[in-house]
Design goal:
heterodimer; A: mainly beta; 6-stranded mixed beta sheet; 5-stranded antiparallel beta sheet; B: mainly beta; 7-stranded mixed beta sheet; 4-stranded antiparallel beta sheet; globular
Amino acid sequence: RKEVEQDPGPFNVPEGATVAFNCTYSNSASQSFFWYRQDCRKEPKLLMSVYSSGNEDGRFTAQLNRASQYISLLIRDSKLSDSATYLCVALLGGGNKLTFGTGTQLKVEL
Amino acid sequence: NAGVTQTPKFRVLKTGQSMTLLCAQDMNHEYMYWYRQDPGMGLRLIHYSVGEGTTAKGEVPDGYNVSRLKKQNFLLGLESAAPSQTSVYFCASSGVLVDTQYFGPGTRLTVL
């Protein structure tokens, strides 16, 4: 079983729609979580961190549910420029290595 | 600042050939990482370094070697390339707070 699992998609949504991705993690010792964004044939870049209390950055909201061991990312009012692959990432407590999910592909269409 | 740079951007090798990938960062980061990314597998850690002169194995280290002789550089070597090493290789660096890793643009390697 992969340590971080995501639905690969693709999620095809119309511009302006709200879309949500979930990610599950298997290691309960994971302490910190993040969402990275990767555009086609480009390098990953940090999108946002995920906190137990939730984290909002403009149209993006990230949530963590430790009891169920899942992380979510909500994108409101989708833009064409949001089309990318979103990587769910976990960091073990005290560790210095990130564990990446395989990514969820989002395609926003006119 | 250039951030993280990688050379070369593309390379084609024949089975058995060797090569070295170079990663350089100008952010004075302590930690550096080498990943490979394959379809359906996501990013997998090959080797990493927590400081100049140190290296450690990641998830998929076999067939690769690394060196960190200078803080700003992290080299990844393939001694005898195999078709299974065809992949996109990313280098990354971070400060001691490893949550934010900065990635280079990647090297696309094909082994025939």
